[in-house]
């Protein structure tokens, strides 16, 4: 199951699990759309391809909430 991180690692923008607009690599590093574009869809941590993160909604989100641990280093 995806960790569903709550923020962009580059700029700190909130990325709710139930909304589109987040991008992840295979290690679940998480970026907002503008940052993913600025990074040419490559994760600066591992070099992996950034892909659209699926959303988690309804009962799935209620039963498996998103992470609250922020990863933005500022």
What does this structure look like?
With 74 residues, the protein is of the alpha+beta class. 16% of the residues lie in helices and 11% in strands. The chain contains two helices and three strands. The chain has helices at residues 33-38, 58-63; strands at residues 22-24, 30-32, 51-52. A three-stranded antiparallel sheet has the order 2-1-3. The longest helix has 6 residues, at 33-38. The model has no long low-confidence stretch (mean pLDDT 96).
Q: Which features characterize this protein?
A:
3 strands, globular, 2 helices, 74 residues, alpha+beta
Outline of the structure:
The chain has 74 residues and is α+β, with helices and mostly antiparallel strands.
List the helices and strands and how they pair.
Elements: E1 22-24, E2 30-32, H1 33-38, E3 51-52, H2 58-63
Antiparallel strand pairs: 1-2, 1-3
Number of helices: 2
Oligomer: single chain
Mean pLDDT value: 96
Task: Report the major sheet.
Answer: 3 strands, antiparallel
The parts where pLDDT drops under 50 for at least 5 residues are none
> What is the helix content?
10-25%
Report the β-strand fraction as a percent range: 5-15%
Shape: globular
Strand order of the largest sheet: 2-1-3
């Amino acid at each position: 199951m995806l960790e569903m991180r709550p923020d962009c690692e580059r700029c700190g923008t909130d990325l709710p699990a139930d909304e589109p607009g987040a991008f992840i690599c295979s290690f679940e590093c998480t970026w907002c759309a503008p940052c993913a574009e600025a990074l040419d869809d490559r994760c600066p941590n591992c070099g992996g391809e950034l892909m659209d993160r699926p959303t988690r909604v309804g009962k799935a989100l209620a039963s498996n909430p998103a992470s609250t641990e922020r990863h933005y280093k500022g």
